[in-house]
Amino acid sequence: MDETKIKIRDYPIKLGQFLKLAEVVQDGIEAKFMIINEEVTVNGVIENRRGRKLHLNDRVEAGGITFVLA
Question: Domains (ranges, CATH) in the chain?
């Protein structure tokens, strides 16, 4: 499985912000709908909180891509 590493300077980062940073979505509304529709997982578990705080080495899968926070 291919993983894309995304470098984050300041931890933690909220899931909605991360999706915008990783260019999976264009804005917070789009992030909200992806999350509500259970299209996002964090560390292999479906996540339904846009404000979920992400930390170093968390894995986020969205839009068919797996991201690793570096």
Answer: 3-69 (3.10.290.10)
Q: How many residues make up the chain in this entry?
A: 70
* Single-letter amino acid code for the residue at 26: Q
- Give the tokens for residue 6: 């995304």
- pTM of the full predicted structure? 0.92
| Res 2: pLDDT | 79
Q: Which positions ≥6 away from 63 have C-beta within 8 Å?
A: 24, 34, 39
Q: Which SS3 state, helix, strand or coil, does residue 65 take? A: strand
Average confidence (pLDDT) over 10-33? 95
Task: Specify the pairing of strand 65-69 against strand 40-42.
Answer: unpaired
